Amino acid sequence: MSITGQFDFSVVTTGAYRSWLVSGLGLSLQLTAISLALSLPAAATVALMRLSGIRALRGLGTVYVEAVRNVPLLVHMMFWYFAMPELLPQSARNWLYEHDAESVCAVIALTLYTCAYMAEDIRSGVRAVPVTQLEAARALGFGFLSSMRRVILPQALRIVVPPLVSQTLNLWKNTSIATVIGTAELMYQAQRVETDSFRGVETFGVATLAYLSVSLMITAFATWFHHRFPARSP
Amino acid sequence: MTELIRNYGVYFLIGQFPHGPLGGLALTMLLGVAAVLLALPLGVLLALARISRRRLLHWPATAVVYVVRGTPALMVIFWAYFFLPALIGHKMGQVTTMLAALVIFNGTYFAEVVRAGIQGVGRGQMEAARALGLSHAKTLRWIVFPQALRNMLPSLVNQFVATLKETSLASIIGLQEVSFIASQVNSQVVVHPVAIYGALALTFFALCFGLSRLAHVLEKRVAVQRLELPQADG
Question: In this structure, is residue B208 part of a structural domain?
């Protein structure tokens, strides 16, 4: 690699390097999909806890959200990968190390981290629906959960989806941090190709393009949603 | 635990200083503060370019913001690490490299915060100031900025929290900030990963939670001031 020399992108877009990068991209997409699928229901639960009338539930939700959001994702990753297995019984630890511990720990860290942010977005979306809507639903005889499901959530969804999409974008970018615990995702594979080929510009160029393309697709979805389902003012 | 603190406490706080470079928690805080102080002016310039009607300013700034915000922070750090030296022609220290990456990355995030803050000030304010004979620059300086600053103060503090958390990524390029030191201590002690990574998490929590409380207080004060202000903006 020299800044004046010729760049040869074909080195990293063919052969073994290409398959390393493609497998990394695949794992990054999987990490994003699995963590997203786990985060959404968990975030909805935490948001409901934080909105509930029961003080203990509210307190628990607040502690979780604040504890997770005020610690860097890198530290979460290191904790779940290096420290958590020590707390497990031997049998569970064996299971973990037989089942791609790097990916499992990355999913745990990404899910817990994303969930805390999404819970806050869902909570503020629900709070944006006028409280009279809930009162009216309750007066008509709906319970707390069913008025949430049938009255509040359909209205809150339009407000909540855009911030949730931008959290998904953050999740996608955050998968790159899993490289510190050796998860073989795109960033890890890019470093591996760079070390092996000394083609820094080409390798990181291709990897950046891959990250950017997925990011722009997510952003495009957000723009489309915003125009298709604008938030209604009460 | 007391033994851990006795043996590694000072190392955790300031690294090898004064026998070597400053590191540990002190470096983390210095990096965070310096990055914010430098990224904020960059953010203001980018925001002004983004809302400018001149295409030559608007389009490049918009492109930079979209590209950097679609790229993981880690990728920006690698670009700074591998290619900034080639670009400027001489080697850079690790601290400078990390600082440059943090400033570029957070500059684009500050740009969006500042842009939202400026656009949140009613158009009537700008028009009234211009009608009273103030120049465009003076209107921005004396009329728009003071009001925008108040609106965006909470978001600015939240971005500060995000920056502090991002400094942990410096450990990947071998900078001896606090999470790097925690990993080092862990590999020497081996048997106490839970205590060591727990202490690291707690350290970040104390820093970031304090700051986000500050953001919360500011948010409340801004809300109160808004209620008290006559609704002059159109």
Answer: yes
- Maximum Cα–Cα distance for chain A, whole Å? 74
CA A150 → CA A124, A139, A144, distances in Å?
18, 14, 10
Chain B residues whose CB is inside 8 A of the A68 CB are none
Please give the average per-residue pLDDT across A221-232, as a whole number: 86
**Residues 6 or more apart whose Cβ sits within 8 Å of residue A52:** A58, A144
Domain assignment present for B99: yes
> For the domain that residue B140 is a member of, what is the CATH number?
1.10.3720.10
Q: What pLDDT is recorded for position B215?
A: 83
Which A residues, 7 through 66, put their C-beta within 8 Å of a C-beta on chain B? 66
> Cα distance from B153 to chain A (closest Cα, Å)?
19
What dihedral do alpha carbons A81, A22, B98, B202 form, nearest 10°?
-20
pLDDT value for B233: 47
| CA of A41 vs chain B CAs: smallest distance (Å) | 25
**Which ipTM score applies to this complex?**
0.90
Structural domains of chain B, count = 1
Q: Would B52 be classed as within a structural domain?
A: yes
Record: contact A66-B196, CB cut-off 8 A: no
pLDDT tens, position by position, A29-79: 999 999 999 999 999 999 999 998 899 999 999 999 999 999 999 999 999
**Min Cα separation B193/chain A (Å):** 5
pLDDT at residue number A2: 47
Q: Is residue B20 part of a domain?
A: no
